């Protein structure tokens, strides 16, 4: 059987295995549910890209599709953070990642941060878009990048670039610092030589690599480059981003009309409260029971908590979508 | 009214009561006929008094001697020496043979007094005499008055063995000395001098009155040997402590006004003196204290007069009552300070253990590659550590306190404290205390629970207990609890209600995140928290929180496949119900609670109910468990795949072979039927064969 087929087959098998595993884990709950329905839902969620939510890291990174789905999910969930303009530290981004994947390793986040910060001042704040694109490259192409790092090191130290290079463990990454002492004037490696090695790598590599043509494009403008310069160039390259298909273009990063609409609906009760003058936030907290996960968004009229002036809020929606002024500009 | 013989006799200061000189002059009984007519102005004495054996009448020494004595006394300067020589008319000599007054004569030196060797009273008041001289011949002298002169040193008295009264007030004497031979001294007045030390008077065993007022004494001691002393005047000095008074068997009156005594301990010897009946302390710092009166009365039961006022029975009773109260208070505060100290030590201990633990974790994290050679000490050693290990910032401890604490053989490794409405837990051992039987009243009053030096993951596990045992706890405080992830706040959602949350930056790195407050508000929005870290939560904060994380919630609820939702929620609920069932049995109240809880769990903003927190340990455990299943699944699927591929192969092979097989089948059939007759015979035979 041809190689590509084997690849896809392997991934299908992964999902099959995982599905059965999930079935085993939640036997009692699912047995009431119906096995056929379970499988349907499972593969539906795989298609939609929601299967990786709150799953362990080993599953999240298992297939390229999983990785893409994860990236997309991260973007969708935390786009608002970016939109708000907050600059966060690497640790905080890592925290956000952990909200979606509890055992996400810190190492990956650190590597991503290094790309953004060019391996300098690791406590610096980063913008959402910078981090996200760098993270995409690092996460999706992790194995590829490990090999590239090894190649870079070799090139720096002047070894023959065409020898077969076996990617070492991920600890190869911290041999990054270019030896500035030797080539004070000439930093990094020559671009064209570098590209040749990459091309060889892509041919041989069993893991996913960025399309060589696009890589060439990214390297076209420079004579020499450093490792992190290269990664930065990759992360900023629109073509590669599009090829991945996980995230929208940088310009559109903050746009997601469907979710924005959703968000507005969620915010409505709060904004209404804000408009009522003199209403302090000391409302009692007995939550209304909206029933267990409904796919439909909560109705506008049903407040999440009863207010002092309950008359004001409940049932007063006349159905029109009110253009509420945002009290928070 | 003071009896006559104790009437005050004084020098010029008779009218000034401040430095009143209480001279107690011991007189033997006076024969009637020697009563003297008292004349104020004139220095004239009744003849009758000429022969009084050894007795001084008080008015003999009255200050009101006229200064006009020039009539009777001639001071003739002699050519022999620089001293003037005193001469009296023989009339005078006969009239006043035993007394001589040279008051206000502007004398700068003592004149030589010839022919008066039987003199008994000599008065040199108000002169400018600098040295006591030329009186060694007056060996019968009983009273010598040198008040208000300029004498700098006591000297020239060694022959006056009969001297009974020596008045040296208001001079410039710096040191008590040269009194060795004056063994009969009865009254010694040294007020208004510059004396700094009590010395050289221990041989004066007949001394009854000693006046050292208005000197520079800073302490009182060296009083032994004064076996007859009944009055001791120490007013207007700088005395800070008093000793040796209990060695004075006859002392009755002690005047310590206007000194520097500030505590009763510095005059504690007074309590041991059984003879003291009259004492003054006014003008001392001690007299300003609230406990002054009753402390003095309590310690000196023999006292009859204090600060010139009689002590009544009522006062004594009050004193003992108050003293008892003081004792109680002191004991109480001693106990309190002991407790406080213990508390502080325990907390220090817990803190140290915590630090070690954190270091150890950090070491493990960073030294993964190399061998961990510098592992921190065993925590067991801490339990035995004594006070000496503590930092020097401890304030001065009572010696008694110190002793008591040395007795603590084991210093606790955790601390549980209830202070009104606050329950404070220090150290992970304290979490077990939640299992104790708390009285409903105490537990009901607790509104604030504070956790310090405890891992948050450990706290998470006892949160259900907290919910049940302390239903009114509305304010949670966390300090040094290792809150590092936003996720951990998810665990707080299981509580009934939180009004206030305080996360101390110390030991909780999560506070350094920009978004942590918003995340808390978002995840715990169903609590409608009012304050986070002391600042009020505004509507804007809530909106912002929702804005930032609302989509996360939406995704977490609506985009998860149904079965995932069930399994996630199922997990969380399972854990809680398990605890509820385990504890307290199947009381109906609890069951209702279960139902309420489940309702509330459902009712909680369910779109974020899926955001749970499992502690790292649990999580890793779960992953371990899953490994087995995964392995099984893998092999199972592989088998299935193998089977499927086999079947597929077979199918394909069949597909390939089938046309050939079909043709052969058809050919065989056709060949068989080619000859109708033989086929018929064959079939019939087959049928008979079968039978």
UniProtKB/TrEMBL annotation, chain A:
Subunit annotation: Interacts with PCM1. Interacts with TTLL1, TPGS1, TPGS2 and LRRC49; the interactions link CSTPP1 to the complex TPGC. Binds to alpha-tubulin.
Region (Disordered): 286-329
Signal peptide as annotated in the record: none
Localization per Swiss-Prot or TrEMBL: Cytoplasm, Cytoskeleton, Microtubule organizing center, Centrosome, Centriolar satellite
Presence of the UniProt keyword Cytoplasm in the record: yes
Biased composition range(s): Acidic residues: 316-329
Annotated family: Belongs to the CSTPP1 family.
Primary localization: cytoplasm
InterPro entries: CSTPP1
Species this chain originates from: Pan troglodytes (Chimpanzee)
Name of the protein this chain belongs to: Centriolar satellite-associated tubulin polyglutamylase complex regulator 1
One GO CC annotation: microtubule
CDD domains in alphabetical order: DD_C11orf49
Function: Regulator of the tubulin polyglutamylase complex (TPGC) that controls cytoskeletal organization, nuclear shape, and cilium disassembly by balancing microtubule and actin assembly. Regulates the assembly and stability of the TPGC and thereby modulates polyglutamylation of the microtubule, which antagonizes MAP4 binding.
Swiss-Prot/TrEMBL keywords: Cytoplasm, Cytoskeleton, Microtubule, Phosphoprotein
Automatic annotation (TrEMBL), chain B:
Any Pfam family the entry gives: LRR_9
InterPro entries: Cilia_flagella_integrity, Leu-rich_rpt, Leu-rich_rpt_4, Leu-rich_rpt_typical-subtyp, LRR_dom_sf
Stretches for region Disordered: 365-393
Alphabetical UniProt keywords: Coiled coil, Cytoplasm, Cytoskeleton, Leucine-rich repeat, Microtubule, Repeat
Function field: Subunit of the tubulin polyglutamylase complex (TPGC). The complex mediates cilia and flagella polyglutamylation which is essential for their biogenesis and motility.
PANTHER family tied to this protein: LEUCINE-RICH REPEAT-CONTAINING PROTEIN 49, PROTEIN PHOSPHATASE 1 REGULATORY SUBUNIT SDS22-RELATED
Quaternary state and interactors: Part of the neuronal tubulin polyglutamylase complex which contains TPGS1, TPGS2, TTLL1, LRRC49 and NICN1. Interacts with PCM1; TTLL1, TPGS1, TPGS2 and LRRC49.
Official protein name in the record: Leucine-rich repeat-containing protein 49
Protein's organism: Pan troglodytes
Upper classification of the organism: Eukaryota, Metazoa, Chordata, Craniata, Vertebrata
